[in-house]
Write a structure and sequence with these properties.
This protein has helices spanning 16-32, 47-57, 64-82, 89-98, 111-120, 145-154, 168-176, 204-214; strands at residues 3-6, 102-107, 129-132, 161-165, 180-184, 199-201. It is of the alpha/beta class.
Length: 219
C-alpha cells in the first residue's frame, strides 16, 4: 500500500469519548428535544450534514446557524481541552514513514477544529495531506468525496490506499472510494456498524500490526 489515510475523531484523538455524551446531553436535546435522537446516529458526519439529517428525520427547534454555533462551542472545548492522542499514534506514523507510505488525514470536522488538534499536539507535519469536509463541494461521509479528494491530493490510486475509520458513515465512504478499509472498533463511538470494512481491529496495538503488515517497505 502506498498511503494511509486516517479519520481524526476516535482514530487520531480519543474525542468520541467526549463527543458522544456531550451530544446526547447538550447538543441533541436543544436541537430535537429530549430523548429523540441519539449520538450513535450522527457519529462520523459533518456538522452541517448532521443538522440537515436531524431536521429531515425529527424536525429541529433551532436554526442551522444556532446549531452550528452550539456545535462550535462544544468543539472548542473537546479539542482544545479534553482530547488526547490515541496511544502510539506518533510512533505508528514514524514506522509508516520508514516504509515509504504517504500519510493523509480526512475528517468530517471543520478546518479550524482540525487545526486545534494539529497545533495542540504539534502533529501538523505528520501528514502530507489534511482534508476537512469543508474543503470539498460534495456531500460528506458516507459519500466518498472526502476520500477521493484526499487520494488525488496524495497522488495515489484508491486501491493502493488504506483508510482507518471508526464510524459507519466513514467506513461506507472509504469503501465507496474503493479503498482498503480497517474498521477501528471504538466503544466510545456508540453502536457503529463496521461490517463493510475489510477487517477490524480492537485497539491501537492491533491497528499498528495490521497497518505495518499492509504497508510494504519501499526503497
Amino acid at each position: 500500500m502506498d498511503a494511509v489515510i486516517f479519520d481524526m475523531d476516535g482514530v487520531v484523538v480519543d474525542s468520541e469519548r467526549y463527543w458522544v455524551p456531550m451530544q446526547n446531553e447538550h447538543l441533541l436535546p436543544r436541537t430535537t428535544g429530549v430523548d429523540v435522537a441519539s449520538a450513535d446516529e450522527i457519529t462520523g458526519m459533518a456538522s452541517d450534514d448532521i443538522y440537515r439529517y436531524l431536521d429531515a428525520e425529527y424536525g429541529t427547534q433551532v436554526t442551522e446557524s444556532e446549531f452550528l454555533a452550539l456545535f462550535d462551542d462544544l468543539a472548542v472545548r473537546v479539542y482544545g481541552e479534553k482530547v488526547a492522542l490515541i496511544d502510539g499514534f506518533e510512533s505508528l506514523v514514524g514506522a509508516l514513514r520508514e516504509r515509504g507510505s504517504g500519510i493523509g488525514l480526512a475528517s468530517s470536522a471543520r478546518t479550524d477544529w482540525i487545526g486545534i488538534v494539529l497545533e495542540r499536539f504539534d502533529i501538523r507535519d505528520e501528514f502530507d495531506v489534511v482534508v476537512s469536509a469543508e474543503d470539498i463541494a460534495e456531500e460528506g461521509k458516507p459519500k466518498p468525496g472526502i476520500y477521493l479528494h484526499t487520494i488525488r491530493s496524495l497522488s495515489v490510486l484508491p486501491e493502493d490506499c488504506v483508510v482507518v475509520e471508526d464510524s459507519s458513515p466513514g467506513v461506507r465512504a472509504a469503501k465507496a472510494a474503493e479503498t482498503y478499509c480497517i474498521g477501528f472498533e471504538n466503544s466510545s463511538a456508540g453502536n457503529q456498524d463496521l461490517s463493510a470494512a475489510d477487517t477490524t481491529v480492537r485497539n491501537p496495538a492491533e491497528l499498528r500490526t495490521r497497518l505495518l503488515s499492509s504497508c510494504s517497505s519501499q526503497s
